[in-house]
Structures are given as C-alpha cells and as structure tokens.
Amino acid sequence: MENESAESRKRRDRLYIIAEILAISKDGSLKTQIMYRANLSFAQLNEYLSFLLKIALLEEVTKDGKTIYKTTQKGTKYLENYEEIAGLLRKEEKNPQRNSPVFWMKKSPMGYR
Known about the structure:
mainly alpha, Arc Repressor Mutant, subunit A, two-stranded antiparallel ribbon, elongated
C-alpha cells in the first residue's frame, strides 16, 4: 500500500476498520500497537476502542500493569461474519450478474440505477 498513490487508495469504511482492530487484537494488543497497525490517529483509536468495549467486541485486560485489548468471542464472531460477507462481495465482483447490485453500481455513472 505504500507504493500506491493517494488517489488510487480506497477509503476504508467503519466496518472494515472495526474488523481490522479486532484482527489486530485477537491475541491481545497494546493501544499503541493497534493505533500504528490500523493506521489510526489517537483520537480515532479512542473513539473506536470506546465503541468496541461498549458493545463487547473488545475487552480490556490488565497484564503487568499494562492495559491489553483483546477480541472477545463476540468480536471473533463479527470477524467471521465480516470475512464471509467480504468474500461473497469479492466473488460477486469477479462474476457480475445483470440483476446484481454490484453490477448496476459499476455500470451506472451515478452509482446506481
């Protein structure tokens, strides 16, 4: 991704960023590790962590005086579902059908018909 120009990069959506944080935290990660690996600002990270803790996709564990963020079982289920849906969409993009929303979004200049 480092070699890509800024305009060729796709904007990450909220669901993707959540999946990325959960994947990074699967075995437990420090806040700074999540921030750098997910390429988020400190403010963005705090917002996401607060939300993910609130809905129990992440948990805080204190180990050796440090706060570790770990993906919960519910968070793992989110990741599995996210990957399944993303896989279906990737498959659909490779073989678009005329009645597929992906087909129409790509064909229409307005993004839909």
